[in-house]
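User: Hello! I'm new to structural biology and keep hearing that structure can be predicted from sequence alone. Could you demonstrate with Membrane protein insertase YidC? Please show me the input and the output so I can see what each looks like.

Assistant: Of course. The first part below is the input, the amino acid sequence of Membrane protein insertase YidC. The second part is the output, the predicted structure written as tokens.
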Amino acid sequence: MTSPRPFLLLALLLLGYLLWEQWRTDYGQPSPPPAPAVAVEDTVPAATVPGDTPVAATAPGDVPVTAQPEPAAAGQRIVVTTDVLRVEIDTRGGSVVVADLLAYPKQPKQPEPVRLLDDSTTGYFVANSGLVSAQGAPAAPDHNAVFSAAATDYAFAAGQERIEVPLTWQGESGLTVSKVYTFERGSYVIGQRQEIRNAGAAPWTGNAYRELRRVPLVVDTRGLKGYTNPEQYSFTGAAWYSPQHKFQKFAFDKFKNDPVNIGVVPLPEGERWAWRDWWLKRVKVPADAGWIAQVQHYFFAAWIPSGNEASEFSRAELPNPAGTRYLIRAVAPSTTVAPGETRVLDARLYVGPKLQSTLDDIAPGLSLTANYGIFTFISAPLHWVLDKLHALTGNWGFAIILLVLLIKAGFYKLSEAQYRSMARMRKVAPRMQALKERYGDDRQKLNQAMLEMYQKEKINPLGGCLPMLIQIPVFFALYWVLIESVELRQAPFIGWIQNLSAPDPYFVLPILNAAAMLLTQHLTPMTGMDPTQAKIMKFMPVAFSVLFAFFPAGLVLYWATNAILSLIQQYIITKRVEAGETAKPAKG
């Protein structure tokens, strides 16, 4: 893989792939004009959740939901501190508006943690929940209602494993709602239950909903350092999952695009939408175990409804003077609470890192938030192996080196064929040069003479490229593993490399990779190569050492390790071919 020609091809493929992904993000699907209104018979009035422009609608058979005025009262902040989270809950709506991840500092060896949820203007990202009443039913607390709290500060006491934070809302019609959050030691999962007690004379009917709202994440894309910043290539946006329809994701700039079909699961045959707006993406998901999420590099937040709920998911773009906000919402099935009855509605909120080894234990498909794209079927097993190697070595850098060794061993036969073909090409290089001088510009005779020589010497001109092409999907898959794995974030290696997710501070790894490339050039046949192409090949080690100076050290460690191992393997095979040894296979 470090031979200049295949390396150049691989680099161009990688660059083209990244440019294609960026182009798709920026220009892939231009916003269409607003679609005309859809006329549907027997419609029910459109529904809204307070504080929104319309973002949901009732379908035939659903209970219509009525809007309520947004209250002006401000809420208190309840601070909950666990061993892994510091959370702020606003009594207005009982919303989780701040979440600090205490085990993940923004910068290495600095006390300030990553703030995932945030109600500031520039970083707005909150988790709301509430109830909406059916028409004619008593009022219920939505995400703007003001709750009362018994305390404003909670933390684990010695030996305590669980904290409960109760919030209470009392309605005038006798309806009382308690929203109780639960926190467990060592967990990024926040439990929530809404206890609805009806002490009034009329039944209450309505729906529970949970939602995540945020503004786009600001990512530095300035200059070469910004171009090589993995954060800009990692998916940021909304996502949802159901066992029937699997993982679906929606970039923020696609919320207005393709008003009917993009990312929307078709409704079951015979069902109709009661109402549709051109910017609305509403989908009814007949799922027993689904979830909604807002995802970014390394971290995400997700609402996980109760496993027996066939939730209805929707997404919308909400105009706001401080910046457009993007919403994804899960609405639970209609619930009726008779007079004197109490009903409990459960859900869970995950706020934390993409720890793939544990996420699927929380909810099916949750590990898919570590977005590997089309290479997931390769990347997921590679991450599993990398995680096992880390358990063996206790160091993510050594785990990367061992993973490269395993990949090289797995592709040894392919690499051997590649290097043997190149070694044979190198061995006959003087004869190829003589043929070129003999036939000059007569390309037809030159090609015929070279073909005869290839047949006589049993050389396959494509033998050096085809094995490498087979390995390219593995390379891309491992690339995504290394940039998406939160386990490698700020992970130390040895000596001068104390952060595998940041560039090598002394450029040792890029220089080692460049040295391996330079040495590889001496083993690679250049006969017949265009002079301009030859100059480009000679310049490549310098160009890539400059480029790799800005890549995360974990990625460059993979490249450099692979380059050195490939150089050793190619050197041994080349020497054996030149010495006429063909029977005994080389050991790499």
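User: So the tokens describe the shape?

Assistant: Right, they're a compact way of writing down the 3D structure. Reading them back into a model, for example: The two ends are 14 Å apart (CA to CA).
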